[in-house]
Specification:
This protein is mainly alpha-helical. It is about 40% helix and about 5% strand. It contains ten helices and four strands. A hairpin with a 2-residue loop joins strand 3 and strand 4. It comes from Tropilaelaps mercedesae.
C-alpha cells in the first residue's frame, strides 16, 4: 500500500510492484522489495512470479519477460493479477483482514458496500466525519449514500476517487474495483499511524547498558514499538551521554 498503481501494464514492468504485492499477501516473502532495482525488470518479475507460485499457489499464466515488457497489454496484466484478488486468494484475504479491523461484519467486496453505510463508517473510523443518521435505507438512494462516503473520503482524508458512487451501489460491482479503492484507505491509515508515532517513546533492553563506552559495541533491542512499524525504516535512535540528568553529547 505504499505504492500508487494507475494501470495493469507499464506500472508492473519493473517487477517492484509485483514484489510488493507478493510480500503484502504474505509478509516476509520478499521483504527487501523496496531495495529492488527497477531497471532489472525481468529478474524482479521472475523472482516475484516464482515466489508467488511456490508460496501463494498463483499460476504463472504469463511469462516474466512478458510482464517486464513495455508492450504488455492491460488485459494480459489484469488476467495474471486477478489470481491475487479472487475470493480465495492471499491478496483478497489480506485486504479483508485489514478492513475487518474496523468493520468486523464485512464478508465481501461487493454487496456489503452497496448501501454506502460501510464506506461511511470506515471514513469515520479513520478520522473523517459522515453523519450516519443522514444515510437512507431505501435502495434507490444507496447511490447517494455512496456519494456521501466517497466525497467525505476525498475531501477529509485525501482518498482519490477511483470508483464512482454509481459503481459502488451496483450489486454487480467488480470486487477488484472496491478492493483497489479500499487499498487507498489502507495506505492512508498506514501513513497516519506512522506519523502519530514519530515521537512516541520507545525503550531499549540489553545487558549492562549502564556500562557502555564510546567506540565499544553494545547489543540492545528496541521494544514498545507497534508491530506494524518497520523498526529499521521508521525508528531513529540517538546514542547520547547523560551527565547529572542532562544530555551532554550526541553521536
Amino acid at each position: 500500500s505504499e505504492l500508487d498503481v494507475s494501470n495493469f501494464s507499464t506500472d508492473w514492468n519493473s517487477g517492484v510492484l509485483l514484489s510488493a504485492l507478493v510480500d503484502y499477501c504474505k509478509p516476509g516473502l520478499i521483504p527487501d522489495w523496496r531495495n529492488l532495482n527497477p531497471n532489472n525488470g525481468y529478474e524482479n518479475c521472475k523472482l516475484a512470479m516464482e515466489t508467488a507460485r511456490e508460496q501463494l499457489n498463483i499460476p504463472i499464466v504469463l511469462r516474466p519477460e512478458d510482464l517486464a515488457s513495455e508492450k504488455l497489454d492491460e488485459l494480459s496484466g489484469m488476467t495474471y493479477l486477478s489470481y491475487y484478488m479472487n475470493d480465495s486468494s492471499a491478496g483478497y484475504r489480506a485486504i479483508l483482514n485489514w478492513v475487518r479491523q474496523y468493520l468486523p461484519y464485512i464478508n465481501n467486496f461487493t454487496t456489503d458496500w452497496n448501501d454506502g453505510s460501510a464506506l461511511c463508517e470506515l471514513v469515520n473510523k479513520l478520522g473523517g466525519s459522515v453523519d450516519m443518521s443522514a444515510l437512507s435505507r431505501i435502495p434507490h438512494e444507496f447511490e447517494n449514500n455512496c456519494f456521501r462516503g466517497i466525497t467525505a473520503a476525498h475531501t477529509q482524508l485525501n482518498i482519490p476517487k477511483t470508483i464512482s458512487s454509481k459503481e459502488m451501489s451496483d450489486p454487480e460491482v467488480q470486487a477488484l474495483a472496491i478492493m483497489g479503492y479500499l487499498a487507498k484507505f489502507q495506505k492512508h491509515a498506514s501513513k497516519e499511524m506512522s506519523s502519530s508515532r514519530k515521537n512516541e517513546r520507545v525503550y531499549v533492553r540489553g545487558v549492562d547498558l549502564n556500562n557502555v563506552h564510546v567506540n565499544k559495541g553494545a547489543t540492545f533491542e528496541i521494544i514498545g514499538v507497534d508491530p506494524s512499524i518497520n523498526v529499521e525504516k521508521d525508528v531513529t535512535v540517538e546514542v547520547v551521554q547523560i551527565r547529572n540528568g542532562q544530555k551532554v553529547s550526541v553521536r
